[in-house]
Amino acid sequence: MDTLKLETAGRGLAPSLAVKTKCVMEDEILRLKGEATAALGEAGKEDLEPFRVKYLGRKGLFTSVMRQLGSAPAADRPRLGKLANDIKQELTQAFAARQEELGAGRGQGTATRLDLSLPGRVLPRGRLHPVTQVMAEVCAIFEGLGFTVAEGPDVETDFYNFEALNIPPHHPARDMHDTFYVSDALLLRTHTSPMQIRAMEREQPPLRMIAPGKVYRCDSDITHTPMFHQVEGFLVDRQVSFADLKGVLSVFIARMFDADTAIRFRPSFFPFTEPSAEVDIGCVMCGGKGCRVCKQTGWLEILGAGLIDPAVFAKVGYDPEAYSGFAFGLGIERIAMLKYGINDIRLYYENDLRFLSQF
Ligand code: DAH
Q1: Could you identify the atom of ligand 1 that is nearest to the CA of residue 165?
Q2: For 257-314, how does the pLDDT look when each residue is reduced to its tens digit (9 = 90+)?
Q3: Domain that holds residue 83
Q4: Does the predicted TM-score (pTM) go above 0.85?
Q5: Fewer CB within 10 Å, N or C, the chain?
Q6: Is there an atom of ligand 1 within 6 Å of 245 CB?
Q7: Same domain, 87 and 231
């Protein structure tokens, strides 16, 4: 029997082949080699697996050829067998090389190849820092009450930071405002109150302003960082009274915390206000029952305020008989701590995303 029939390999891709002599069989093996080599040369990445199945697979054309060798004349079998085997091995190597070339191999070397079909890495979406969020919230509440926003320099003169606010050299109030000096008369501002002076020098009443920004002090512990944020607020007009101050701050606290948050004014002292008050709210942690956060008092101090001292008006040339006003200053980090139950102020500035991404 000298007829060799090659089986059709997979999906009807290959034609049936009928060869009549050993020579024809050898020709057929060589033709198959030529065909496979050409196909491999043109193969794209997606053609590789079909190629492997068609020519090199268990049911592929070369396997078929080898199986049919049994029907070749015994004398020719070893030679034809070796030929078919060598070609199959050659093709297998060429296949691996092509795979490598197309960056489609499974083995080594492929990791370094650039695969443009890979989807891009999704960048995590950023968010606003909790201090920035609370700052924006505070500003929005006061803007809603008709206050305009003014910003001033972080590096401030001794005059604006202290003198004009009725804090002369050697005044004991300077003790709590130790800061970083650029020169004898230039320093990093310790509060946003200097903006009262800058605004009043520039404009005539009526004034309704807030001044948000960074402030600095020589302080560092679980409730103090050397840099923090404040919002200063002030209003100057005719016949402004303490009742106006209370009204504005009550609205602010109701909007910032809960509408039914308790609020109290305690007499205090600031050189630039008279009378002065410290404002407390009912503890947001325990609802006023007493806990560690409020040190069992049921109250949390959240800002300083008062009626603007006539001595300050005199510094900016306003007539204290004609005008009166109120001012207040609050710390943003502290408000954010109370709002979110944060127990260590330093967390804000460690840039740990596990913390920051919670807000
Ligand atoms: N500037 C004060 C501070 O940082 C806070 C303050 C208190 C501001 C009373 C005011 C005020 O405007 O009236 O300690």
Answers
A1: 1
A2: 999 999 999 999 999 999 999 999 999 989 999 998 899 999 999 999 999 999 999 9
A3: 2-109
A4: no
A5: N
A6: no
A7: no
